[in-house]
Specification:
Helices cover about 40% and strands about 20% of the residues. By secondary structure, it is of the alpha/beta class.
Amino acid sequence: MGARLDVILSPTEALPPCEVWLVVDVLRATTTMTVFFECGGKKMLPVESVEEGLALKKSLGSGWLLMGERKGLPPQGFDLGNSPLEAANACVSRYEGAIMTTTNGTRALLAAASTGAPVLIASARNAFAAVDAALSSGSSIGILCAGRLGRVSLDDSACAGALVDIALEKEPKILFSDGARIAHSVWHSYGKNMEEALKDASHAHFLLGLGFGDDIRLACQLGVSASVPKLAFISGRWTVLL
């Protein structure tokens, strides 16, 4: 049987069996994670709640960054938001690692991890490298879109479509699910242009209202990074590393 590619457009869907997952939250968690490791970050601990993040930071100490968001903004007591630009400017290589919680992205990562298959972090920035890594990890690939507040989002659907397009170029005989075809169609409907797709996304409009236009522009850059972070279970905790 040849390579197969499935796209799960909504994080509330049941996850099918796959040999490897690519998780996408282009605005902004997986973009922020990609940039964190581009800039020399060592490891990241994804957690579901603000309270868990604060408790873990207290336990681990000042050598760890606490980063993330609720309603787009860093909760009280956090060092950084869920901002790729902040991560790029924070000299993250000086720290032992980071703890991260976001409304959508970290939950999607942990959901994919619960299936037992390897999980890779994907964004527009590392799209080519992420697809290469997935194709080398298995013939049955799932792309999980983090969405927004449990619903399908245009931004993640377009990014997933870009990943599908790249996979098709590399494996012309790859078999698509309906979700993959929908994402691929979304990507092509915007002329394979991430900036054009995100202009229409409600999440992008929300972030623009909070003053995060530079984050959005950074998230639109396609294929500029070779960094593909992955999830690993280390010392009883899920950890993102290169």
